[in-house]
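Pasting as-is:
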Amino acid sequence: MDEIKRKLFEHCKAFIQEIIENRECDIRLLYDAKKNVDLMMAFHKSGILDRYDVLEATWNVARKYEPDDIRNDSERESNIVLIWEFLPLDDILSELDLLPEEFDAPANYASNNHVYFKLSFSIPERVICLSLHLPEYGPGEAG
């Protein structure tokens, strides 16, 4: 990741953190796309009923890592997209006080050890969770 993108991410972390902590992030897409719903249902079956809790736990893990990609949002003018392709699922489970054996990951995904996470944001307006699901392909595979 080039230095400008790295600095952008570091600069925006606090803004994104505040939006997520205040539960002001738009999470409608977690109710729509099948791959997002599959993961949310797995958390629900494990006793995590609030999608914001999952989002906050995922963000707490994601902010420790540089995103795999930062780019302009092609669908939302003036928004930036942050993408983490392989966040460790066990770290997210730990944030939620779940043991790996207490979580039954959805089947038919390339990995049940990682999570794909994508946010779109514009300052100071909003943060949108675009994707939160298990990867559809493995590391090193074309996506």
